[in-house]
# Entry
Amino acid sequence: MPNGIEVAKDAIEQFQKIQKHMLIAKEENATKTYESLKDDYLSLKAILNVAGVNLTDIDKIKE
# Structure
């Protein structure tokens, strides 16, 4: 069973991956893809906030 650090690390990696794809979708004007990714982004952001992760430096989207 993963510990809290492993769970946070995995969530951070997923958060960064989602952001990368969101930025690409925005650049390509793929609005449906962007909105779909935004749901995952907001969920991960909420999980990381509850876990006490400071998103200041890693949140590139700022929504």
In short: The chain has a mean pLDDT of 92. The two ends are 32 Å apart (CA to CA). The first helix runs from residue 4 to 27. The chain is about 70% helix and 0% strand.
